[in-house]
């Protein structure tokens, strides 16, 4: 990496734009950046870091205050850096985020951060020629080209104040953090974390398995009704003892259940015998009671017999009378149907309602035949109706098609003019769009001129005010000077008296040296003392300072006014801003129509082609409609000539046929209803004669007597049931008394079933309890055997998991610097210790040279105090004493030598480790004032070696002796309004 140029604007202490040409500065390979303390030397290194990475080294980045406080509000803070990396030259431009005053109104607004990368030659493979403008993409690209991060760059290229001295004195933890950033050893931290995560995961699995085994132990103890053992590790002896105890309990429960079952069986047999005796006594008593009840119901039974006999004889009469009633109902329905048929025939226009059957049949046949003839014309009538509807639609479609043809022809004629007008408007819009950028630039220029003219008046007022102040200051200074001269002259006039007042006898005169003072001078009127003269001189000096300040303010105001006048004059003649605004608005309005007008022209062209096609299709459709209309009109006219005679006085053939069918149906219905009524009247007369004869045959004098004796089916069924029930009850009672097992039974015998039932219940309860105990013992034994099998399997599976976890935990502790790791070094610390050892070797070569062979670095991997981990210790070997001592014991100058050597060694190792770009530029910003002349010579010799092979080394210091050893190419001057750079050839 080689830097070419740096340009800063309103950055740090620089209010304006300052440029540094590194190609000129690095011509000799070594240059000095010199300036007063606080002038902004380190700011140039901050600008390089900010251009590359968007951040500055050290704690200054935390302040995030990069804008110059002296800069003009309109000046943007910006850093430009040109450099070459890996053979590709590029320009980086960055601006920080900061608050700036609003251009309109009060308050501030945020100026957003920005960044850009521009390739000044051919870009690397995979990059676009146009460069990059996104901040994150620019940062990633810079890191990729340099091959190192910002932290590594600050330690390798920009060696900032105090940073590498802090690294020399840092403790193990701080040194580890810095080395980890420089050498990117995060992957080893990932390995350590992987082992820790793996150990945690394995421990969780082990604990899960242990918890499962503990749950099985608890379940075994719960199933056995026992307490779990205190030691829940693999204990087969406890499982054997539990199984043996449960087996003994199961055997004892089985014996008790057997004895209880025998006792319950005996009680149940006694209860069965008692129940049988009680049942025979109950049956004997019930049979005797049933016979007594049957004797009491005997008279009622005879009445039931008589009622049932009369009802059965009346059944034929009831059936015949029921047929007569049905015929009367049917006759009434037939009579009403005949009346309704007469009404329908009258409505249908039939006149001879009293005609005989033959006439009615002939009239029905004639009407039916006429309806059949009309049915043949119904299809023609339907087709005629459809044809008329189609003809109407054809007429409407003819009119519509003709109107469409006329409309399309008119639109086609008007389209050329519309296309022409749209094309002219599109040309005007395009012309306005082309003028838009020029008008915007013109407006911006006129706006700037207007602002300058507004500022010109303020500048003129400031010049007038400065002139007035200057005049007043000149007058005041002149008056103070005259007063001072007057006071001095008056003091000189009274100087003899002033000297005489200080003489004493025997003292030498300060003028003549005589010890005699014969005539002392007397004070003159208006004499002035030394204090009054000093006050007058001070007043004159103050007035002179005010005059100088007024002169500087007057010159600055005149310079501002002249600059404004030159800028206004350079702009040429001024145009009217309002006229430009009008032209810009009109052009913008026309330009906005460019896209709509372009689409309109395209649409009109497409519409013209579409209308032509539509017009051709519309004309064809119109011709087709007219041909179809003419042919269909002829067909309708011919069919109408056939249908008019057939419809007669009706609207159409269908209505006339419906009327004929209605008349035929009315005549037919009248004929049928009249015949049905006459037939039912004859059947009713014959049925009434049959009912009377059936009553006489059944033994009744009148039909009414037979109907009174009749009973419905439900009553007859009740009579049969009551008679049969009484007979069955008597037969059952006599059969029960005749049974052999009741012959020797005394009906007065008493049996106590409650006492026997209680004894049986107690025996069954005891037996059930003993069986429940047996079942519980069997269940416990069965559950314990199953759980014991699972528990032994779980113990067997747990052993390899515990062994694996023990190995993994031990290895994790070693990797993380614990356990058997006697040095308390983690894997990451071990890797960093190896890198630090390389750094110590590289730094020793330079430290030994600069300290004239006295000091060298010694890497230490010993543990720290209180057993803290080691591996990152760095001490110094003093060759004068032959002892190793901490780096913190070095003096200020020795610390600087050690720090510089360590920083350079660290830079070499980091550069080799990252494999990044070749580092052709190096900056050292550190205090050289702690070195004596000889040591400074050694340091300069070491720095001379760094620039071998075309390398450029820049030193930042205010030490005056360095100006005599190194040509000062870049000087920073400190001013009240900001610093400025001065390049010295």
TrEMBL record:
Q: Does the keyword Ribonucleoprotein apply?
A: no
Q: Name one GO molecular function term.
A: ATP hydrolysis activity
Which InterPro entries does the record associate with it? AAA+_ATPase (IPR003593), P-loop_NTPase (IPR027417), Rad50/SbcC_AAA (IPR038729), Sigma_54_int_dom_ATP-bd_1 (IPR025662)
Domain AAA+ ATPase residue range list? 27-288
Q: Keywords, A to Z?
A: Coiled coil
Keyword Coiled coil listed? The answer is yes
Q: Which GO terms describe its biological process?
A: double-strand break repair
Q: State what protein this is by name.
A: Nuclease SbcCD subunit C
Origin species:
Kibdelosporangium phytohabitans
